[in-house]
Design a protein that fits this description.
Its EC number is 2.10.1.1. The chain has 408 residues and is an alpha/beta fold. The chain is built from six helices and 27 strands. The strands form eight sheets. Strands 17-14-18-22-21-19 form a six-stranded mixed sheet, with helices on both faces.
Length: 408
Amino acid sequence: MSAQSMPIDWDKARTLVYEAGRAAAGPAESVPLSAADGRTLAEPLVALTDLPAFPTSSIDGWAVRGSAPWRPVGRVLAGGTPRPLAEDGTCVEIATGAMVPQGAEALVRVEESTRDAEGLVAGTPRPQPEWRLPGEEARRGEELLPAGTPVDPAVLGMAATCGYDTVPVRPTPRAALLVFGDELLTSGPPGEGRVRDSLSPLVPAWLRRAGATVDPGAIQGPVRDTLDAHVEAIRHGLSVADVVCTTGGTMHGPVDHLHPALAALGAEYVVNTVAVRPGFPMLLARLTGPDGRPRFLAGLPGNPQSAVIALVSLVAPLLAGLHGRELPALPRVELTADVPGRGGFTHLALAVLDADGRRATAVGHAGSAMLRGLARAHGFVVVRPEQRAAAGDLVPFLPLPLSPGERP
């Protein structure tokens, strides 16, 4: 493998890493519904029965046969199996969600009915039937959701409605983080030539939001600036994770040991440098894990914003592929002000969205070593190579990974 490479187009890089992840997605496993939230369907969700499975009342009232008045002959509640209505002029009291008895011709709402002194029921059924018919929502064997659908609470409810106790899902990718750099402090304020490690708290949190698990023991650093220490740390990461993220060392300086370490471990580059600013010296390499299955190492630049750009450009699409999901399409937003281009490179400009999520404004303090702008941004405006974007233009927007309930 070569440590030198011409930067690859940003869009192509996203596609390459996504396809690498999709090819390495783990086998399906069946898990209880209680453990499936956040996973991905490995097989289509198919209706196990008609939905609803039986005619179901939509109201509280009376199931009637023949003409009014009707003589009550019983009651049916949700969960019960009623006897047929066999005679004209009879009815049963019925609850919402209860099975409509065979022989019933209409339903009358309780609030639109009356009872006389003898207990006979009168009322006028509405023109439209007020029960759900079997198969109204789905027919047995019908595909409800395709493989690759992210499992959320609505999907869990749908699966339970169909009668599933377990669902087939893809494994959740495991991630690890190795922080390189002897100059890093792990506590206290920076000073005297040393800077605070901001990536150990930042990267794992976004990895989790992007769909990976990150155990506390899978975070190491600062790793000593020696080749042997890098090789040892990467080997450990590969033993506990499917994706190992490293920070720093992606160039070829006197203490940049990542490329030699990858060569020593027999890695194969999927992407080696990307034509994007900030963050171009990012990389993704494929290695073989202890179990013989593919593992990945994502080399994130050491500057914090550049590291985040590498994470959303390479790692997030990789994780989507490992989950067996589709690569998310980028939404388009309207710019409120001009955003310059970066020549032959794609420019990812930090931006904040308005309350509707439709208009984007670039934020300040957006240098590659800065986090102030990132802390208030929702993602990045994408300006293609050899282009500039003007106020009012519709441009792609690359969102930061979000947890449920977070805006936008």
